[in-house]
Amino acid sequence: MAGRVASQRIAGTGPSPGAPQMPVSRVAGQAAGRATKGLARGVGGFLRPFHRVGTIVFLEVAGVFFFVFVLVFAQNLWRIRAAYAAGPDHQKFVITVVLLALFLYLSASSFWRARRK
């Protein structure tokens, strides 16, 4: 090994005696890391406006999805409205009111959050 180092120094192809030695794989890894970081910043900058619009569209679609359940529960509530005070369907009526209120809240809050963005 000492002979190989000496022959490299004589030929001038080896590292200089005072220079720190880094493995080639580490240098290549650092270069790849810098390139990847630059690419990620570029793609992130390009996609930033689409992220905002995509978030708003997602919230509005979720609001419509929850509102469909509000319509289904409202229809069911109208059908069993006679049993609100007492009757065989009183428990179904109460559960339907609770679920209707929950999905109405989810739908309204989804649209509200979309408008805030």
Q: Give a count of the beta strands, DSSP E runs of length 2 or more.
A: 0
- The ordered H/E elements are HHH
Instruction: Return the domain count.
Output: 1
State the oligomer: single chain
Q: Specify the structural class.
A: mainly alpha
CA radius of gyration: 34 Å
Number of helices: 3
Description:
- The chain has 117 residues and is mostly helical.
- The protein has one domain.
- The chain contains three helices and no strands.
- The radius of gyration is 34 Å and the shape is rod-shaped.
- The model has no long low-confidence stretch (mean pLDDT 84).
In short:
The protein has 117 residues and is mainly α.
Give structural attributes.
about 120 residues, mainly alpha, 3 helices, about 80% helix, rod-shaped
Question: Could you outline the blueprint of secondary structure elements for this entry?
Answer:
Elements: H1 2-11, H2 24-79, H3 90-116
Helix pairs in contact: 2-3
